[in-house]
Amino acid sequence: MKRPVTAARRYAEAAFQIASEDEAMAKWQERLDELAALLEDERAARVLANPALAQETRDDILRQALGWPKGDAAFNLVRLLVRRNRIRLAPGIAQEFRRLVQRSSGIVGATVISATELTPSEVDAIRERVEQLTDRKVELTLTRDPALIGGVAVRIGDRMIDASVRGRLERLRERLMAGAAA
Fold first, then answer.
1. Number of domains in the chain
2. Which of 60, 87, 94, 137 could cysteine-pair with 32, CB 3.0–4.6 Å?
3. Residue 147 in 3-state DSSP?
4. C-alpha to C-alpha distance for 4 and 2, rounded to whole angstroms
5. Rounded to two decimals, what is the model's pTM?
6. pLDDT digit string (tens) for 110-140?
7. Residues 36, 124: one domain?
8. In the β-sheet with 107-114, what is the strand arrangement from edge to edge?
């Protein structure tokens, strides 16, 4: 699993460099997100990863599915991924590209996991608190996980702040077990 992440990061860094030179960050991010969305369809991913199909056939399928112009620089990256049989890296490349854009803009990405849907005021309060913690502007991604029971968990890079009911119960259980062992 480590190798594909590293490969996705390298492709994203190359795309980021090209996008920087062309001043086309938003366009590249949009293109990479479109490709990642296309590959969410397992049938499309299988067809594009099928080495039995000629490169030109897969290029035509991609061009029709995505609707990008022939000379598009992002399409050249996609063709390279298909040729090297690495098209399944595309969602990771899109994610890494977004991280690079955020970092270059001084923005921190954070994922907020909650048991239920958060209200706009709750999201604003979380954003404000994370901005205080990081001293940077924050872009939040919201996800739901009913297993948290209540509360939220926030992931900022490799740091996790767990304020969920499940997390509190787990910490309480650990203290009780440590006390029983003593």
1. 2
2. 94
3. helix
4. 6
5. 0.70
6. 999 999 999 999 999 999 999 999 999 999 9
7. no
8. 137-144, 107-114, 151-156, 159-164
